[in-house]
């Protein structure tokens, strides 16, 4: 029988190994070296969740060669720029989204990610940066800190609390956050999957003086996005008098940042948010100000690039099916998120399309039989929807 002190030491080491699993090939845990103080404590609590290292996707021979292969600069003209938010609540979705982009990109090494992290996120931007690097060792990316007080006094209450998150408004500030040499960017929400080559979306032209491009949905009832008080006010509703406004989803946008900065569109959006604080003109969160500024003057992109609404409506979060037609991007906008429904063992059918891109690995041991069962379900579901993904 072990002496008490030795027994206690074994227990202590065992506990530490559970919280900080050793570095190993194939699965990267949160790195603990070069982290001290508060970050070390935070890393311990975050280590209950970890991610497998993604495959190392490389460029083909037809890809443009970077100016500096050793250290890629965000100013490199050969790059495709993607902006996404990065936070602890949607982290699992963000990792799956990044995985899907680089998996299907024809030139994955030419994709550069700009991650916007909240200053006061429960998991600090520093730890989130370490996590991205350990999951995607060869990914080109930069993490920017978004100060919530930039927008907190402009946010009004919404029909769902999640829509009030200040990070939802980070897209309004991309022209200020990203370097001036970044003149164009694709903005993507964290609850998406790209199942096509992102370079196709990048190469879409924004004609005339258009600042953004997005799939439009002109059959949607546009009036429902604003209150009766808005429509009954002849001055306010006049904003659409010279336009034919259509609904578009701001979770997938191609943005010309040169025109954005020149037109001071950040301030235009803020002006509507300030008015909303004084008198209620809409019920949703960050979408209506974008509609007020851009609806009717958007470069219409093929619907295949935003099969949105897969999360269900913003109240019940019921299951949805795919829209008719081909699919390049799936978007779980709405209340229900695939990782939450899968974890609760109550997934919608389309959630199984998201599952193969999920790199999340909980700390507890997997049941091999259960894992095999889930794999079989995923495979059969993919076969069922293969016609959409061709």
From TrEMBL:
<keyword id="KW-0735">Signal-anchor</keyword>
<dbReference type="InterPro" id="IPR050748">
    <property type="entry name" value="Glycosyltrans_8_dom-fam"/>
</dbReference>
<dbReference type="Pfam" id="PF01501">
    <property type="entry name" value="Glyco_transf_8"/>
</dbReference>
<keyword id="KW-1133">Transmembrane helix</keyword>
<keyword id="KW-0812">Transmembrane</keyword>
<keyword id="KW-0325">Glycoprotein</keyword>
<dbReference type="InterPro" id="IPR002495">
    <property type="entry name" value="Glyco_trans_8"/>
</dbReference>
<dbReference type="GO" id="GO:0016757">
    <property type="term" value="F:glycosyltransferase activity"/>
</dbReference>
<feature type="signal peptide">
    <location>
        <begin position="1"/>
        <end position="26"/>
    </location>
</feature>
<comment type="pathway">
    <text>Glycan metabolism; pectin biosynthesis.</text>
</comment>
<keyword id="KW-0808">Transferase</keyword>
<comment type="similarity">
    <text>Belongs to the glycosyltransferase 8 family.</text>
</comment>
<keyword id="KW-0328">Glycosyltransferase</keyword>
<keyword id="KW-0472">Membrane</keyword>
<protein>
    <recommendedName>
        <fullName>Hexosyltransferase</fullName>
        <ecNumber>2.4.1.-</ecNumber>
    </recommendedName>
</protein>
<dbReference type="InterPro" id="IPR029044">
    <property type="entry name" value="Nucleotide-diphossugar_trans"/>
</dbReference>
<keyword id="KW-0732">Signal</keyword>
<dbReference type="GO" id="GO:0005794">
    <property type="term" value="C:Golgi apparatus"/>
</dbReference>
């Amino acid at each position: 029988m072990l002496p008490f002190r030795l027994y206690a030491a074994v227990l202590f080491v065992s506990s530490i190994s559970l919280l900080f699993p050793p570095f190993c090939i194939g699965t990267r845990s949160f790195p603990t070296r070069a982290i001290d103080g508060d970050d070390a404590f935070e890393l311990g609590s975050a280590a209950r969740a970890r991610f497998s290292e993604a495959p190392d996707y490389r460029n083909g021979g037809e890809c443009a060669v970077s100016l500096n292969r050793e250290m890629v600069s965000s100013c490199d003209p050969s790059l495709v720029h993607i902006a996404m938010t990065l936070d602890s609540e949607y982290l699992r979705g963000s990792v799956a989204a990044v995985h899907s982009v680089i998996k299907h990109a024809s030139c994955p090494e030419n994709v550069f990610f700009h991650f916007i992290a909240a200053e006061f996120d429960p998991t600090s931007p520093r730890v989130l940066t370490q996590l991205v690097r350990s999951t995607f060792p060869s990914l080109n990316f930069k993490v920017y800190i978004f100060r919530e007080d930039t927008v907190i006094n402009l946010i009004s209450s919404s029909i769902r609390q999640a829509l009030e998150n200040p990070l939802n408004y980070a897209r309004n500030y991309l022209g200020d956050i990203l370097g001036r040499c970044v003149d164009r960017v694709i903005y993507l929400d964290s609850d998406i999957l790209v199942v096509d080559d992102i370079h196709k979306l990048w190469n879409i032209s924004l004609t005339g003086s258009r600042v953004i491009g997005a799939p439009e949905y002109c059959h949607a009832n546009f009036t429902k996005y604003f209150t009766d008080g808005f429509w009954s006010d002849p001055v306010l509703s006049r904003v659409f008098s010279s336009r034919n406004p259509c609904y578009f989803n701001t979770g997938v946008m191609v943005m010309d940042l040169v025109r954005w900065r020149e037109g001071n569109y950040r301030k235009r959006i803020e002006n509507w948010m300030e008015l909303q604080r004084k008198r209620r003109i809409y019920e949703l969160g960050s979408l209506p100000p974008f509609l007020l500024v851009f609806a009717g003057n958007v470069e219409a992109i093929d619907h295949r690039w935003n099969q949105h609404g897969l999360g269900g409506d913003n109240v019940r979060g019921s299951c949805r099916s795919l829209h008719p037609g081909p699919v390049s991007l799936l978007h779980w906008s709405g209340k229900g998120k695939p990782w939450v429904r899968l974890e609760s063992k109550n997934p919608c059918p389309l959630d199984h399309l998201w599952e193969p891109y999920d790199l999340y690995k909980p700390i507890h041991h997997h049941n091999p039989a259960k894992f095999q069962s889930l794999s079989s379900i995923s495979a059969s579901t993919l076969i069922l929807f293969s016609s959409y993904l061709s």
